[in-house]
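step: validate -> pass
step: tokenize input -> pass
step: predict -> running
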Amino acid sequence: MSAEDEARLFEEMMTYQEAIFRICLGFSRNPSDAEDLSQDVYLKAYRSLGRIRSPHAVKEWLFRIARNTCLDHAKKLQISRLFEKTTSPDNVLDTRTPEFSAVTSERLKLLRRAVSRLSKKQREVFVLREYGHLSYEELARTVGAKAGTVMSRLNRARIAVARFIKEAGHE
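step: predict -> pass
step: emit ->
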């Protein structure tokens, strides 16, 4: 792949910055972590540009890198929590940041709680679809499942989120 082709692919990748950030935010639920994860995604993608097999599938390839980066981050967090002696509820979000103010409406808090209660597979497709705006075909290729399976998981996830929000609204 020529340097010109790599530059063109990287430019195309940069058009997805907002979607990549939203995906990372959906997985991490922390704006600061989402920024770091987004940067990791682009660093990994940049380093692998020469190995891309289908230049016409940059979006799908980049979103797969984002998904895998976020899942790896979540695994590392789980492992580190096992070794922590104390957990502070204050480490979730720093309430002094502008990012916190931007995402703290009651509806978003409720949505985050609802999404966090989904199974791993349902949460994965929900976040990629709703935050990353992937098509069903892109979702299927990204998570390595059949389109019907993805649609079923997404439907169950949406029903569960809607039910949770409805029930929480009546409290």
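step: describe -> The chain has two domains: 1-92, 105-171.
step: cleanup -> pass
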